[in-house]
Amino acid sequence: MDVPEKILELVDIFDRNRDAYLSGHYKEAEIRSEFINPFFTALGWDVNNEKGYAPQYRDVIHEAVVKVGGVTKAPDYSFRIGGTKKFFLEAKKPSVDIKEDIAPAFQLRRYAWSAKMPLSILTDFEEFAVYDCRVKPVKTDKASNARVCYFTYKEYEKKWGVISDVFSKEAVLKGNYDRFFEDKKSPKEEVDSEFLKEIESWRDLLARNIAIRNPSLTTRDLNFAVQKTIDRIIFLRVCEDRGIDDQGRLMSLLNGENIYRRLIQIYHQADDRFNSGLFHFSRERDRPGDPDTLTLSLDIDDRVLKDIIKDLYYPESPYVFSFIPIDILGQVYEQFLGKVIRLTPSHRAVVEEKPEVKKAGGVYYTPTYIVDYIVDNTVGKLLEGSAPNRVSKMRILDPACGSGSFLIGAYQKLLDWHRNFYEADGVEKHKKELYQGAGGEWKLTTAEKKRILLNNIYGVDIDNQAVEVTKLSLLLKVLEGESEETINTQLKMFKERALPDLGDNIKCGNSLLSRKHLYEFDLFEEEETNPFDWDNEKFGFGTIIKNNGFDCIIGNPPYLKTQILQEFQPKTTELLKRSYISASGGNVDIYIIFIEKALELLSNNGLMGFICPHKFFNSNYGQNLRRIISENRNIYKILNFGINQIFENATNYTCLLFLTKKAQIHFDYYKFDEEIDNLENEVNKGISYLNISSSELSENNWVFLDPKLELLIEKVRRNKQTLEEITSNIFQGPKSGADPVFILEISEKGEKTIRCFSNSVGEEIEIEKGILKPYVKGKKIKRYKVEKTNELIIFPYNEKGILFTEKELLDNYPLAYSYLSRKQNKEILNSREKGRFKKIWWSYSRPQNMLLLDRNKILTPFNAFNSSFFYDTKGGFIFSAGVSGAYGILLNSEVNINYEYLLGILNSSLLEIYLKSISTALRGGFYSFENKYIKQLPIYLPEKSDEDKNKICKEIENNVRKIIELKKDDTKHADVDFLEDKIDSLVYELYGLTDEEIAIVEGEGK
What we know:
Strand order of the largest sheet: 15-14-11-16-17-19-18-20-21
Domain Restriction endonuclease type I HsdR N-terminal: 26-136
Low-confidence stretches: 64-70
Number of helices: 38
Catalytic activity: a 2'-deoxyadenosine in DNA + S-adenosyl-L-methionine = an N(6)-methyl-2'-deoxyadenosine in DNA + S-adenosyl-L-homocysteine + H(+)
GO molecular function, one term: type I site-specific deoxyribonuclease activity
GO biological process, one term: methylation
Strand content: 15-25%
Number of strands: 37
Largest sheet: 9 strands, mixed
Shape: globular
Mean pLDDT: 89
Distance between the termini: 37 Å
Domain Type II methyltransferase M.TaqI-like: 455-647
């Protein structure tokens, strides 16, 4: 990009008058208007809002310089795209030394780090510095710390391309800005992970101290007390930084003793101002819920509260609490809620992971862009063309609300809609709903924000702590944009306190089970279920249910298999299976029950939007739910993320599922056909679209294909026997249940023994040859060949697959016995399946199909990039079960084909495309070759009387034999490719494909 003339002009003016600008008399406001504003105008930003956009849609927000506690309250500029902040800019007068001065850099980095803004700029025009604001700021950091670029004004002409390629409006719109910081490796010190560590340390401090000082507390009381204390401190500190409360109020508690007693006084004052359930200490008329009578009588040591409070303030604290987005705070709490406090018999507090969280592999919060998409396609859809009287009747629910991220998103959508409607309708008509802010922006009054929240937003969660966090998040959302002045005005004008009590909106209970369920199955006294009575007007949402139900149900339901739930809540698991059609088929995942429940709770014209695994599309456990949805034609939209991972550090293949109570003739299906590096910013890349007739769906597996490919798949399937029908067995090998013990890596072969490395003991060991067999993992099985393996497995079974007795093992293989008997190995072996194998500790956990291992068979890995079938005629090795293993395929002896022909068919391009069309795509380009998919493959069987087709089959057999031989020489790739192409042509002929259909196959395969 050529340097604009305006930039050259600015550089020249500054250079000629540099001494005057560097004097202390030249003000920051002057450098902003005379240099910085035109500089960024040249980068394409509408710095002065010359286009006249409403405040919420302006490119650039200029902050007034307001001091809070001696520190400026906000950065000078916020650059935005469509109302979304992209980066901050902090301006200084030229007399400030930006290159070396610590304070300005720390100030900017605190703002941007707290706001989770990856990059931001510090400039006085003379100097221009860019910081990686993902790095946690520390007050002693040098100015150069986390600085990724530094220029002086004399370098602007030379460096203009670098600046404009990242910070011009066009570059930001094209994604260059995002790519720039993604390419920069940054320490994992972002505000969410650091604040999580902070509040987890508070929980630990408070839990241990409160447990010791308050010996009569129960575990439930202790969890409640700790959570409330943390929530209240965060709320009050956020109010300070937002200017709603006196700055340093909590800090002042450190000047003296009896900190907790004085903190309680602040609680009562907060209740007088806010009326929030967070500070509900006494009964009042029309105030829901029971008051908190527990925490006022607690004893907490001063030293504990000092440790917490002292690190909440500048300059010790890196946090600017007014800048931490509420969705980020919710994400932090989502992780925080994955642990719980337990009391030991001696009444000591221990913080540990919840068992269901541990089993599920952790807590995974929903990214904000997913929340926004779901809200836009549910709440947003219902708001289109509506008026306030209709919107006031809209009821929005998250039945597993967690930290409240979806309800926050829905609430923000409603706030934006109401403000825009009132402005368009004429502000004069809506003086009770609107007021004009300092910058001329029209804002909703606190009273109107309260009304909308209480009227429209509802949530349930089984975890009471989650309920409290959702309430906290929503209350902070109400206070967004408020100040001490607006809150006090509210108190004077309307004689009411600033915040609502959300006890009637956000409730605790098991969304899936009611007392009615318990009573029907004679389990009424079971406490583990924590039932929730939806149709109860006092304890549930009876009025809403009687008035047709909820208009929007949104969220991210729990992903938890019932077999895991069974371990710690067996009664709940049994109740779910009895109470829901979707769960009646056996082991399922909880999310599918939430989908069934959501359909039950929806109003007649209501919309549901969930992010959930798409595994139910083609899993056995999803059959009943597929039947419910297909019979009622509930789908109106699906966005399938394919192999893309939405949740960080989790392997869940998900989709956005949008359902409606009203039957749909067609629905929209979108799918990501490739792996996208930055899904949030490239949401339209590599996406395919289909409009599908609802009548095409049934309880059978859902396969969403392009119409032409679907017709081809149907043609290939028609009048063919499946692989399952022509085989006697499709099986997996044995499973040791302790691979680190049994599987060894070859180091050196001897005459009678082999030296191997053992992962379980971390050293080389010596084992008798006679008890070892080659071990082949699925990834070693390739197309027409098996790669050499350097692994062996201890095989404590005889040739008939019968386990050696302990004496036989000791007498015949003493080295193996000694190794298996080692303490660390014995512990691993005995711990399998809760000690099930203690009496035969040297056995495999699943010694299945032992006699089939040495038979002639076709093998395929469990997962593979493409068809990788291999004909094994020798046996002599073990392949295992599970995702790292393989399947063996045995032909039925009555079928008039041989293994070589079947191998050619299975490895053909046609059947590969067929399998990929019905299988599950996995991350990294893999597909599942599980039994449930490969058994469906249609196999062409020639009639004995059809000489032409039998001749083609014979030619396929011969070509396969040639390929098997050629595969023994790694230099014959061209010959192999030629023969494989020839087999493909013969297969097309057998299956009767036209030239157009062949083009579809070969196009899909590329």
